[in-house]
Amino acid sequence: MATNRTFTMIKPDAVKNGHIGNILKDINDGGFKIIAMKYTHLNAETAGQFYAVHKERPFYKDLVEFMSSGAIVAAILEKDNAVADFRTLIGATNPAEAAEGTIRAKYAKSIDANAVHGSDSDENAEIEGNFFFSSLERFA
Ligand code: CMP
Q: Within 10 Å of residue 34's Cβ, how many Cβ atoms?
């Protein structure tokens, strides 16, 4: 059975461009409840750890540099079928391929600066949420 939590980050491009409020509204309107949230900043080391799964990929260095270039908002979200429904809400990784009305179609400019991250599996949602939040920092 699909679990009901996913993890997201609003990335440095969307924070710098003033889209935090609009993206959080889209998340709420999509039926997701925010159960943990923080405004913070990754450095190269922590961004590298977060994206360690991609460390052999050619885009890893640029990804780490970009993700440590400015503030981010990290959050754990709750909804039935959270992982799949959130990926539908944000659209394809490459905003040029993202469906109209999705968060990436509206707020992202490139595959690197793609406005938001969404977990790709229940297992990774758990790992990524734990990366940012202790049990004391979650609403439930
Ligand atoms: P995200 O969902 O945060 O997961 C990894 C990120 O790497 C991805 O979003 C993109 O922003 C970035 N990325 C850059 N190039 C690629 C690529 N060719 N394929 C997948 N992700 C990429």
A: 14
